[in-house]
Design brief:
single chain; 434 Repressor (Amino-terminal Domain); Jelly Rolls; 2 domains; elongated
């Protein structure tokens, strides 16, 4: 247990890019004591542990949490291609996002391609056109949106995105709550 606590403190200190001396200064302890703790050579009182964790901005509860760490960074290997019913390609960027507050995706549309007409739902949609230009049908209204422009709407009407252009289009599309 002493080794594990020391290892966790060392990992937290290194991820905060602090030296043992800097952590000692911030926590009010000596760098020799920090070194002994990290190497598992001495035990630590709750008070000293609290001083170290306060200096690292980590709560006691988080320090002793046994649960898996939340994934923060996602790569292309994590992406899931979804058949959304239209002719475009929808890449879900965060797997398991249905358990989160929002769901980010990349919509890729070749010339002439479109999403299926999406039913209204209780939520919001945000999109940022990364490449090309798109046409957004929002109820009976039509909007033309080009690269580096964005859209935001409450999903209280049917909506559809299409690519009327000659080049490929790509949109960062975020729904809240998750809808895809």
């Amino acid at each position: 247990m002493i080794d594990e606590i020391g290892r966790k403190i060392r990992d937290l200190r290194k991820s905060a890019e602090l030296t043992q001396g800097e952590l000692a200064l911030r926590s009010g302890l000596t760098d020799g004591f920090i070194s002994q703790i990290e190497r598992g050579l001495t035990s630590i009182s709750i008070d000293s542990l609290k001083q170290i964790l306060d200096a690292l901005n980590v709560s006691l509860a988080d320090f002793f949490s046994e649960g898996p760490r939340e994934q923060v960074v996602f790569t292309s290997d994590n992406q899931v291609e979804l058949d959304e019913g239209g002719t475009g390609k929808l890449l879900l960027l965060v797997p398991g996002a249905t358990n989160r507050e929002m769901e980010p995706a990349i919509l890729k549309l070749a010339p002439g391609e479109a999403t299926s007409l999406r039913s209204s739902f209780n939520g919001d949609n945000y999109g940022y056109v990364l490449r090309g230009r798109i046409q957004l049908q929002y109820g009976s209204e039509i909007y033309r949106i080009k690269a580096e422009q964005s859209f935001y709407f409450t999903a209280d009407r049917e909506h559809k995105i299409s690519n009327p252009g000659r080049g490929h289009a790509a949109v960062l599309w975020i729904t809240s709550p998750p809808y895809f």
